[in-house]
Amino acid sequence: DHSDELPAAMLRSILVALIAASAAAFNAPASHAMRSLSSSRSAVSMGVQVQTTKPGNGVQPKAGQMVKAHYTGRLQDGTVFDSSRGFLRQPFQFQIGAGEVIKGWDVGILKMSVGEKATLTCTSDYGYGKNGAPPDIPPNAVLIFDVELCGVSGKPFF
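^ that's the sequence the OP posted. Answer follows.
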């Protein structure tokens, strides 16, 4: 009995036809549209991407709590513009979800757990936007942060 295969085959055909039609509408080959569609999951199109480099203990912060984090911020070309690491430097402390930091941090650090090390890649709309933060951060800059979530304390908003 192949009754389950027909709907799946039809759905595949419809999906391929839709991709080909949308590619034609934008005057691009369908194979290019298919590659773009399949690779878009790994690309940062808007927002923040969190890539864990060392897992934490599973305890995640909640909006309103105080968090402490060590970080190094750099531009896409590797230029370091800020860091909490170094001789006698302390972790940066702030209230998560309260708008005290760039949106990429408020959103990205909520996805981390205590002890976790991760790389946060923030598009400019989740960073300093079209104006940047002169002189260190140019307009429309993608920002890359190596972050270690050191601690969480206090009561959440909800």
